[in-house]
Amino acid sequence: MSLPADLHYTLEHEWLSDGSPATVGITAVAADALGDIVYLELPAVGDDVAAGSVIGEIESTKSVSELFSPVSGTVTEVNSAAVDDPSIVNSDPFGAGWLIKVDVTSTGPLLTAEEYEAHAAG
Amino acid sequence: MNESRHSPLHDEHVALGAVLTDFAGWQMPLRYGSDVAEHTAVRTAAGLFDLSHMGELEVSGPGAARGLDRALVGNLTALEPGRARYTMICAPDGGVLDDLVVYRLEPERFVVVANASNVEVVRAALTERLEPADGATLTDRSEQTALIAVQGPTAESILLGLVEPDRVEAVRALRYYAAVPAQVDGVEALVARTGYTGEDGFELFVDSAAAPGLWRTLLAAGAPHGLVPAGLSARDSLRLEAGMPLYGNELDRTTTPHDAGLGRVVRLDKVDDEGSPLPFVGRAPLEARAHAVPARTLVGLEGLSRRAARHGYDVVTPTGAVVGTVTSGAPSPTLGHPIAMAYVTPEVSAVGTDLAVDVRGRQEPVRVIALPFYRRTR
């Protein structure tokens, strides 16, 4: 597994970049577990999100999983390219397949890459 | 999990990098790469499936046909040698124990193909129901039998190139639900024109020891025809589009064949040698069910929004009254919108009825449509 070391991670398999607005996505582990993602439901720009709450859904042919916000704050941007073509979340989950950007007021519990790797392996 | 069984093709799946999943006690490939690409390959070219987890129970002897007539809901005496029949085995109360494909290989030799999850149940029921006086012997061939399916519009071209020359015409001429023995790449196989994808295709019953070599040959020979290995994820989305039931979803011990819209498999017209109605397990309750107003009926639902209904979700009316339960649902790769099958009350089962499904707390609009969702055009 090659996890970007400069990102933060959650137990629910999201990643978060440093700074504010921070970028949020799902990890390769989550994308691989779902299979081909065919539908993303994401919050809208301007929505307030709370750390730990469900803010969207990620659906594949086989299953569906909820997207949890790793932070509290206001959504400043949504990756419309990923909404239009969710396959980029599978092909580049840490890059072009990012999901939303959030103006962060506070963060929920976060893991380092090393901690997340241990969590995902367990 | 440690006790999961392995297919004779397990090493092939591992070598291909398959994502494995536990299925009815077996470690089977869920997908090799992209499940949607595998699905699409079967619709447009071909897919190669390992179905070795399924059970093969041979019933032979002078009383085999009559014994199966009593044990199953179908009319096996009427099945011609070389043909196959989709049928079911029911409990005494009419509930479905399993759905089956039965092949009549010779006048006195049948193979009953059971779902992996039900092999034990079917074997036990057949053992109990085939009386020694019938002159029928049950032999479980599951262990030494591998089952490989080649499905899709290019399946015939791929297979014919590997069939022994003097059997090519027999395989080419095979009708749907017919089977013929033939060597494929030098391997003795029962070649059946059957499948679970809604496409043309074949299922090959071969000895387990010969399966890995045949699998590799099929992959190599099929590649120029667009064939890819395909996993259980694609198999499930393909059969759902084709409107085919899955045991555990559309069928179980609480459903009758009639509930699932498959009352035609229950042959109440079966007669014994004297012309009297033939008793078979489940006959009386199924006869009553055939003439009763059903409490529920299986329908197809076309999703009118993006979020897919899934197994177990409530079907509701526009005012929120629960009128049914989803048995299978997914975003359809071929159609580009969600599809589902569901049991609903008869009042809301007419094609065109507007309903909704409670998808994790939000109602998503659906419309009853005729099954199957997908029908091949060629």
TrEMBL record, chain A:
Its cofactor is (R)-lipoate. GO terms for biological process: glycine decarboxylation via glycine cleavage system; protein lipoylation. Residues 21-103 form the Lipoyl-binding domain. Binds 1 lipoyl cofactor covalently. One of its GO terms (cellular component) is glycine cleavage complex. Keywords: Lipoyl. It holds the Pfam family GCV_H. SUPFAM superfamilies: Single hybrid motif. InterPro entries: 2-oxoA_DH_lipoyl-BS, Biotin_lipoyl, GCV_H, GCV_H/Fam206, GCV_H_sub, Single_hybrid_motif. The modification N6-lipoyllysine is found at residue 62. The glycine cleavage system is composed of four proteins: P, T, L and H. PANTHER family: GLYCINE CLEAVAGE SYSTEM H PROTEIN, GLYCINE CLEAVAGE SYSTEM H PROTEIN-RELATED. The glycine cleavage system catalyzes the degradation of glycine. The H protein shuttles the methylamine group of glycine from the P protein to the T protein. Belongs to the GcvH family. This is Glycine cleavage system H protein.
From TrEMBL, chain B:
Its EC number is 2.1.2.10. Substrate binds at residue 203. GO terms for cellular component: cytosol; glycine cleavage complex. It comes from the Bacteria. InterPro entries: GcvT, GcvT/YgfZ/DmdA, GcvT/YgfZ_C, GcvT_bac, GcvT_C, GCVT_N, TrmE/GcvT-like. Signal peptide: none annotated. It catalyses: N(6)-[(R)-S(8)-aminomethyldihydrolipoyl]-L-lysyl-[protein] + (6S)-5,6,7,8-tetrahydrofolate = N(6)-[(R)-dihydrolipoyl]-L-lysyl-[protein] + (6R)-5,10-methylene-5,6,7,8-tetrahydrofolate + NH4(+). One of its GO terms (biological process) is glycine decarboxylation via glycine cleavage system. It holds the Pfam family GCV_T. Residues 296-374 form the Aminomethyltransferase C-terminal domain. Gene3D superfamilies: Aminomethyltransferase beta-barrel domains, Aminomethyltransferase fragment, Probable tRNA modification gtpase trme, domain 1. Residues 9-270 form the GCVT N-terminal domain. One of its GO terms (molecular function) is methyltransferase activity. Keywords: Aminotransferase, Methyltransferase, Transferase. The glycine cleavage system is composed of four proteins: P, T, L and H. The glycine cleavage system catalyzes the degradation of glycine. Belongs to the GcvT family. This is Aminomethyltransferase. The lineage of its organism: Bacteria, Bacillati, Actinomycetota, Actinomycetes, Micrococcales.
